[in-house]
Design brief:
alpha+beta; 8 strands; about 30% strand
Length: about 200
């Protein structure tokens, strides 16, 4: 069994703090940067649904199936997005990292790499996970590219997996990193953080 409890995870480019209603206003401002809710192939709350989304994630936390974080930009101290451990399988020492979004100006930056480095390190080094999973929509090419850049490997595609809010049927792409791969992935992420790509 793994014991997943709220915690703060921190690195030079990002800090992850337990999600709470305290971050509501920052997250509303963040989601407006790029009007992220208009991306049809993913679920990102509209500004007026942010409170309900925070409450939903906290309810899943209370049920033991999710551990949600607010993503903090250390430079400003503001929340710029959300991420979670989800579909927690404590008996089998597995978690999924997902339900992640960042404001547009934080995307494709060292902040995302840092968040994944923190979450993966905590999962493998502190929680003793044997595998960490990532899932995304077939058409979410930005997410798929980002997951592959981490070093995750493709497990497969769950076809006609879920019904989307717009009535379409989602094919879900499943990736994972297993414990034996973590040392190489860690070295890869550390190299990326030491040599960040130029910002847009």
């Amino acid at each position: 069994m793994i014991n997943i409890t709220p915690c703060v995870l921190e690195g030079p480019h990002a800090r992850l703090e337990p999600l709470s209603a305290h971050y509501h206003d920052d997250l509303v401002e963040a989601v407006r940067d790029g009007e992220l809710w208009n991306l049809w192939y993913t679920f990102i709350p509209t500004p007026d649904r942010m409170q309900a989304e925070i409450e939903r994630r906290l309810q899943l936390q209370a049920q033991g199936s999710m551990l949600p974080f607010a993503v903090i930009d250390p430079g400003t101290g503001q929340a710029v997005g959300m991420t979670t451990y989800m579909n927690i399988d404590s008996a089998n020492h597995r978690v999924e990292i997902g339900s992640t979004w960042y404001r547009r100006r934080a995307q494709r930056s060292a902040l995302n790499t840092q968040c994944k480095r923190l979450l993966l390190s905590h999962a493998f080094d502190a929680l003793g996970c044997i595998a960490v999973e990532f899932r995304t929509h077939w058409f979410n090419h930005a997410s798929r590219n980002a997951i592959e850049r981490l070093g995750a490997k493709l497990d497969g595609v769950l076809r006609s997996h879920q019904m989307a809010a717009n009535g379409s049927i989602r094919d879900t792409v499943v990736y994972s990193i297993i414990a034996s791969e973590w040392p190489a992935v860690r070295a890869h992420l550390d190299h990326q953080l030491a040599h960040p790509r130029p910002t847009r």
